[in-house]
Amino acid sequence: MTANILALDTSTENCSVALQWQGEILSHEQYSPRDHTQRILPFVEQILAQAGVSLQQLDAIAFGRGPGSFTGVRIGVATAQGLAFGADKPLVAVSTLQAMAQQAYRSAQAEHCFAAIDARMSEVYWGEYQLQEGLMCLLEQEQVIKPELLSGSAQVAAAVGTGWQSYQQLLASQYSGAKILESVLYPSARDMLNYAQYAFSQGDVVAAEHAEPVYLRDKVTWKKLPGRE
């Protein structure tokens, strides 16, 4: 049975919301690098109104748990927590990298995918995914890493995310079988629904107070100004 799930993501420059209600999917997204806090709740209200439902009628709320922009990830987690507290609903955390890989499968039938988000500081958030029963599943682990330190591969696979735009020449030389999908730059809430459905069916949910972001980069080292060491 398909669960009724609202999904939202603000982890990158893309702000997106999607609703799976009685098997149908509604979605709304917009490129808005600096005003997620002003857009995300109106997007939620609009999509619920479009479907004619309330938060209380849903089974769960899914959110992009990262990796991505520190501020963006925090906005998404906090928004999902607030909605879940108010409606007394469980939360499902979804990887932003997995969502991009899922979009590659939906839009281009890609069954193998290298997902990379530009993490700044000459690094990328990286994950490799393989299709298993309709769901793009993580191989090994997600990581934040300098592109030149990746192991490389000649396997034919889709390449998605802003990391492939920022470090295209370097990554393409290491992953000679990669085909860049320029249409998949950012995660989308619509493509979080597949994993959210699976997780919900397995009972892999958390209460609002236990929702946590995933940054991958736990420590950031800043160069101090001369005389302030």
TrEMBL record:
Signal peptide: none annotated. This is tRNA threonylcarbamoyladenosine biosynthesis protein TsaB. Belongs to the KAE1 / TsaD family. TsaB subfamily. It comes from the Bacteria. PANTHER family: TRNA N6-ADENOSINE THREONYLCARBAMOYLTRANSFERASE, TRNA THREONYLCARBAMOYLADENOSINE BIOSYNTHESIS PROTEIN TSAB. Residues 33-153 form the Gcp-like domain. InterPro entries: ATPase_NBD (IPR043129), Gcp-like_dom (IPR000905), T6A_TsaB (IPR022496).
